Amino acid sequence: MRRTSVRDIARMKAEGRRIPVVTAYDYTSARIADDAGIPVLLVGDSLGMVVLGYESTIHVTMDDMISHIRAVSRGSKQALIVGDLPFMSYQVGGEDALRNGGRLLQEGYAHAVKLEGGARVVESVHRMVEAGIPVMGHIGLTPQSVNEFGGYRVRGRDKVEAGELMSDALALQDAGAFSVVLELVPAALSREISQRLSIPTIGIGAGPHCDGQVQVFHDIMGLYTDFVPKHTRRYVEAAALMSEGMAAYASQVGDGSFPSLDESFSMDESALEGLEAAR
Ligand code: KIV
Question: Would you say the pTM of this structure is higher than 0.85?
Fold first, then answer.
């Protein structure tokens, strides 16, 4: 099976086919999503919260990202793997972005990178694209700027912010981004941006008019229960199922019904003769 490329993603928009994207952070989640035919796996820095237990994505490092992207790449055969550039890996400027974007491809085995921000990151986008690194943009609520925004809130509800987001989306497209994530953006504004751009928009909390949708694996699988965002839908209650399974395991070990001899290994018991003499 041929791996999805950024050209395939562009073709999906041109043909009016919606693009499903999901985050993946390890070998197992990557295999599940890849086997289900999800064409794009995003190794998001949201792993800081749902896998590493941090309060925000700010603490995620390049080493964290490389290690998780590698695991995802080992679990995936057909998906395009996009790796997130973590906080402070590109904010200093284009040189850093180029070096760190390159590391995500070279050491992490990603096929593309994502970074947050609009007009202020276009130089970095441009430098990476020129070097052959496909770039996905990310505007709207950009979690790495949570301290600047003062919380996780919908962006683009008023005229000024809506205009800024449209300009940011166009700037990213002009700089060569192959797609752009719209996070927590009103549906009507996402519709306008999606119609205006020739590259695909991938929404999260951005309504039904985007060219694709991205969701956090743990949210749609019902695995992350600390907080349930309004924009997600749980397709499986995995945490509840896993708790049930874990309690059954503990109880069966406790009452001796696990493991049975069928779940054990046999030997010729004559080999046990004379064991009492062993010191
Ligand atoms: O880090 C992440 O998972 C993301 C998506 C939610 C877009 O940036």
Answer: yes
